[in-house]
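[09:14] KT: can someone run the structure on this one? pasting the chain below
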Amino acid sequence: MRIQNRYDKDAGKPRVAELVCALPWSYCAPVREEISDTLTIEHCVVVHKDGCVQQTYGFRGHDLESFSAMYINSVTAYFNESVKRLGDGWMVSVEAQRYITSDYPESDFDIEAGYLIEQERKESFKDYGNHFDTSYYINFVYKPEMEIKRKMTKIFFTEIKFEKAQDDIIEQFMKEVKRVTSVLESKLIIRPLTYRETVNYLHSTISMRRFNIAVPDHFLFLDTFLCDMPLHIGQTLKLEDYYIPILAINDFPMETYPSILHELNKSYIEYRWVSRFFPLEKTEAMTHIWHGVKPCSLIYAEVREPQ
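[09:31] RB: done, structure tokens below
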């Protein structure tokens, strides 16, 4: 009989301490927005351990096969214009999750002939094999200015005023996110995720086990609640039995075209693709440009320098 002890890595429950320490999320703050006396929209704001606040929106676009490149470019322009309104301290990420599904969308029919045809379609759907679906999300993350400057300010000054309350930060954050997403509503079907949808989405980003979580109504810490797969840190990063290879992009093409990654939707694989954008104020952006790009006179002098 094998005796298990606390120093045995394979004993008992899988170790998820490494993943818990790596996660930035702390807890969820459900927020209800009253549109009218009879309509209420549920929002959910995720508070990070370092004071950042995050809100996730789910969205759907039109069929890319049936729209022209000009229309797709216009959607891109709408998104760029909406993100330009943000400044320092913000991060916007667009995410696509492609996964295998066997769910068939159910419908109600008043006519028996339509119901029989739908049953034939359902049987054909099940006999075909693996089907794939893709979910799309937009994450808005904001780090309050006080959290950014507080440590340096305390070195030289004594703060007299109290820091901004967390509720006020969340309220201002949601107003800014609403202002951005209202621009996208004319081109996309977009809505904020509810409390339970947000928790399930966060779980899907750190686990390969796809299922709906029974989220309790009481307060919970997300990092310890969501982790169900151990993260192995070493020469090769691995989440339980799944390897996580990392690729570095050395250069980007000089030209591109609309929906350049649309071919991924035609592949019979599961994937998760995320693109992040960090907006900067003009003065901050110019500082990064001047530090990262040499003046033209220096470049010309290097080119003309004799070998």
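[09:33] KT: thanks! The longest strand covers residues 90-101.
[09:34] RB: yep, looked fine to me
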